[in-house]
Amino acid sequence: MASVGYVASEHPGHPVPAGLRSWSTLWAGYRPVDITPPELLPPGLAASVAQGWAEPYVSPQDVPDWERRRAAALVPFTFAGGWPLNPTGRTGWAGRNLGRWGENQAADPVVIAGSGAERRVLLIRRRDVGQWAIPGGMVDPGETAPAALVRELREETGVDLAAMTPVILARRYVDDWRTTDHAWVTTTVALFRLPTRVLATAGDDAADAGWWPFTGVDHLAGLLASVGGLYPAHRALLRLVPDADLAVAS
Ligand code: RP5
Ligand code: MG
Ligand code: MG
């Protein structure tokens, strides 16, 4: 098959053309751009490993337990030449910009308070991209997703919902900004419903925390446009909240 001369760096902001994303479509000219940051390459990698958020492997070929990881994956994935392949196909980006090669499991607690026109959703402003997002985070090694939902919510907003049982909305891929062909994010999205708002205080990787009117994702995005915007990857997650939990716009 003829190669298509697509080089991601020549198309800033462009996704890979839809017809070329599938790994089963041969594309000899594919040249993804490596976005591995210095803190995930030697010598900086050692400090990131010591901080506890990065695994020490410079290449996925060094990872010793792929069989176990594949069995535990939320979204199945395949390999080529020892490299795990993003289950959504080519991204235009290579390397690792996340703690782990392959699937990085996150937990996203969607907390809703009030009803009708008073209904609100608890969001944080992410320090990395400056946008408003669900107060989620990565599941720690050996931790369960339900435990991570409660821990991340507490760390990022100060709200402790350990006594509640949330409704799991989905276990799915999330289009995180750090995604590459060989390291990506999946998440467990869960809904907590509160009768009224509780005090929220930003902490950890949250620059701000607040309750935003939530009568629909598009309305929410409009509200947030002037203050950093809504983290694009979380639009799809917030759309998972059942209609019954949304106020009818009047
Ligand atoms: C998002 O990044 C996930 O949906 C989750 O909210 C979060 C996990 O990463 P950190 O907040 O730990 O950076 O894509
Ligand atoms: Mg966090
Ligand atoms: Mg977080």
UniProtKB/TrEMBL annotation:
Top-rank taxon: Bacteria
Pfam families linked to this entry: NUDIX, NUDT9_N
One example GO MF annotation: ADP-ribose diphosphatase activity
Gene3D superfamilies reported for this sequence: Nucleoside Triphosphate Pyrophosphohydrolase (3.90.79.10)
PROSITE patterns documented for this protein: NUDIX, NUDIX_BOX
Keywords on record: Hydrolase
Domain called Nudix hydrolase: residue spans: 102-238
UniProt similarity note: Belongs to the Nudix hydrolase family.
Protein's name according to its UniProt entry: ADP-ribose pyrophosphatase YjhB, NUDIX family
